[in-house]
């Protein structure tokens, strides 16, 4: 089973947008796709397939199904046949979609971007060693802002010791490895907080990157870039073994430019209300804003022991119960936000 999944991920690009459990769920939904149930199935498929592209629509999924010569997805098929059929469906759905890099309404002066561009890195693999963990997000914003765009969800993985496993690592490394052959040469793949990874995961990651670098170095074509970011001045195995790839000239973009980009971003409507003291009127401000804009309201409190699974389930259930109307989600954050929530909030911001 694992060998079949690995071979499929090495053969196709877009199956690497989904973890094994997500892929299995997609296949099981496709086995239930019938004329009398298709509307419900399409909606469930959309919820999970939008992990690959948040602009995906129900009509596009239905058109893809209608365009396939054989839409028979059966649980009686062999594992290899199931995986091949699923890969062909996902490839057909995503392959011809335009790459829409998201931009902000604010453009950094060209004289500034030239100083911070990844074009200055040289090569297709680099490591950025930062002195503070909180600088990782600024580094990610620097990398993409210097390209006058924002990151796509498939380009970034923020690691944490709580949830990140080797499957997450292999998926983004496979996307990097196969990006050039799939028209994604301008992608920049970032894996942040590598210092959070356990030694065993770093060891497997090290071997995979070494194999991929060796193969890519022998090829004559250009490659997309992979950047690893360490948010602590540590001597992790990746930093030690890849010391020759550490970029000592990298500088963070001045924060005024990062702030200007985030404030002008015209994607999802995200507002931040913060104060350095309690009872400062944050909730009052939020509720007034929601009332003024006539939004439905849902408060979600994020505590130290909160999980992404429960939070996403709450979001989904709320949207369904409110008939997908305009909803304002109020995330009330405790002083110590769980590190694994960084990835979720990153997707909220750029998704």
Write the layout of secondary structure elements.
Layout lengths: L1 H10 L8 H12 L6 H12 L8 H10 L11 H16 L15 H7 L8 E5 L5 H11 L10 E3 L7 H14 L8 E5 L6 H20 L6 E6 L6 H5 L13 H10 L17 H11 L3 E7 L5 H14 L5 E7 L7 H10 L1
Parallel strand pairs: 1-4, 2-3, 3-4, 5-6
Percent of residues in beta strands: 5-15%
Distance between the termini: 32 Å
CATH architecture of the largest domain: 3-Layer(aba) Sandwich
- The computed structural class is alpha/beta
Record keyword descriptors for this entry.
14 helices; single chain; two-stranded parallel sheet; 351 residues; alpha/beta; Rossmann fold
Summed up:
The protein has 351 residues and is of the alpha/beta class. The protein has helices at 2-11, 20-31, 38-49, 58-67, 79-94, 110-116, 135-145, 166-179, 199-218, 237-241, 255-264, 282-292, 308-321, 341-350; strands at 125-129, 156-158, 188-192, 225-230, 296-302, 327-333.
């Amino acid at each position: 089973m694992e060998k079949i999944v690995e071979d499929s991920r090495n053969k196709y690009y877009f199956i690497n947008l989904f973890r094994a459990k997500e892929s299995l769920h997609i296949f099981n939904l496709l086995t239930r796709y019938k004329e009398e149930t298709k509307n419900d199935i399409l909606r469930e498929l959309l919820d999970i397939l939008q992990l690959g592209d948040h602009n995906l629509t129900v009509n596009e999924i239905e058109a893809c199904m209608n365009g396939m010569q054989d839409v028979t997805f059966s649980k009686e098929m062999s594992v290899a046949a199931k995986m091949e059929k699923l890969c062909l469906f996902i490839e057909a759905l995503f392959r011809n979609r335009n790459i829409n890099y998201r931009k902000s309404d604010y453009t950094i002066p060209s004289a500034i971007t030239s100083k911070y561009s990844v074009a200055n890195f040289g090569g297709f693999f680099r490591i950025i060693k930062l002195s503070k963990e909180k600088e990782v997000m600024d580094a990610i914003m620097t990398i993409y802002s210097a390209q006058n765009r924002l990151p796509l969800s498939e380009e970034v993985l923020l690691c944490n010791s709580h949830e990140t496993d080797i499957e997450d690592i292999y998926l983004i490394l496979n996307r990097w490895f196969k990006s050039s052959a799939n028209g994604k040469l301008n992608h920049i793949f970032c894996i942040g907080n590598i210092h959070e990874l356990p030694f065993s995961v770093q060891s497997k990651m090290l071997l995979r990157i070494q194999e991929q670098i060796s193969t890519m170095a022998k090829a004559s074509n250009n490659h997309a870039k992979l950047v690893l970011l360490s948010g602590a001045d540590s001597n992790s195995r990746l930093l030690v073994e890849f010391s020759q790839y550490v970029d000592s000239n990298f500088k963070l973009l001045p924060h005024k430019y990062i702030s200007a980009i985030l404030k002008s971003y015209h994607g999802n409507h995200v507002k931040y209300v913060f104060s350095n003291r309690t009872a400062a009127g944050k909730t009052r401000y939020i509720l007034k804003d929601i009332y003024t804009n006539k939004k439905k309201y849902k408060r979600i409190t994020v505590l130290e022991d909160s999980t992404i699974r429960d939070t996403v389930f709450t979001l989904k259930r709320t949207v369904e119960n409110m008939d997908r109307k305009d909803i304002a989600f109020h995330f009330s954050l405790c002083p110590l936000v769980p590190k694994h929530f960084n990835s979720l909030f990153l997707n909220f911001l750029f998704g």
